Amino acid sequence: MNIGIICYGSVGGSGVVATELARSLAGRGHQIHLISTETPFRLGEYQPGLTFHRVETPAYPLFREPQYVLSLANTVVRVARKVGLDILHAHYAIPHATAEYLAIQILKKTGGVRIPRAVTTLHGTDITLLGSDPSYTEAVAFGIEESDGVTAVSESLRADTFRELGVKRDIRVIPNFLDCGVHRRRFSQALRDSLCNGRFTRLITHVSNFRPVKRVEAVVEVFRLVQAVRPDTRLLLVGEGPDVGKASRLVQQAGLSDSVAMLGEQDQVISLLSVSDVFLLPSRQESFGLAALEAMACDVPVVASRVGGLPEVVNDGETGLLHAPDDLAGMAASVIRLISDELLRTSMGHAARRTVEQRFCADLIVPKYEGYYREVLGNAG
Ligand code: GMT
Known about the structure:
This protein is of the alpha/beta class. The chain folds into 2 domains: 2-177 and 361-378, Glycogen Phosphorylase B (Rossmann fold), CATH 3.40.50.2000; 189-359, Glycogen Phosphorylase B (Rossmann fold, 3-Layer(aba) Sandwich). It has 15 helices and 13 strands. It has a 7-stranded parallel sheet with strand order 3-2-1-4-5-6-7, with helices on both faces. The chain has a 6-stranded parallel sheet with strand order 10-9-8-11-12-13, with helices on both faces. Ligand GMT binds next to α1 and α4.
């Protein structure tokens, strides 16, 4: 198939999933056209069958905001005219489902080219935080209704979409996935020693894009409670985003600067996860929690909020420990339990890895997307 994939290239799970899907599909012999404003940060080396198309959005002083929907639709039209797309797959509904719809209307009107079938994948905040905001609801719901196929990354997100947007169509749940050959524990004693710095014996890791939904204040507070009992524990904060400054302030105010390492954005987190004892994700909302899945793939148990799709990823009591989002004391107690009980920690870590292998590997999930594309093409009217 000739498949166009639209995604955000900046750091974020939806872009990571779209890029992994693009790479896997190209590896399975499809021609993939990845369309984004910037080179997705996990695109990696050149791969036959995978072409990147940059969306350029010109600035003009009259406009307060760049007209991204128009430039994206325009790029899609040009790519479709040049290569003849079978499927156009938008990741993240806002505004990608709208641009997808617009591009297809233009192609239908101008004719002379194959009209791709439109698939939209809902990732989370495009529904739960933004899509359900009255400023967006009608347009987002319309884009979803007009797509030929719609997928959601968890049952929870599917239910949220029906409830929040009132859409009435079928939505297929296809969970997120990882390349299990790449995402696996690669332990380095040297890295662990350097992070433990002769002073710490346990490492807790949080990876995110530091948006308010990730609740850095909860990350720091849980760690403060853990440190009070286990001063030999260090927190690794990995990632960049609007709340990084806030995280740094909170760490300082709590007198924890010596025990927290702020490592900034990292292309690959496998080495850091592989030397971690516990992964901490106390988000307010999480439709799936790809960061938790990445930790699990590296044999690391997860302590997280029991919200959204996280219970579909982390099996409470088996591959991690889940708590109500406000139960920070409970999360701290779970972290302390895991770092104090090596047997429990390693058995939960192994169970986490097994879960990833049994349910979330690319070779299980990517064929589900291929099958869905075929269904959508089969339904072409
Ligand atoms: O909202 C974000 O933090 C970014 C967003 C994204 O663009 O990736 O994350 C959402 O999609 C991910 C990939 O499907 C999921 O793993 C995240 O759980 C989801 N974030 C939220 O629901 C908060």
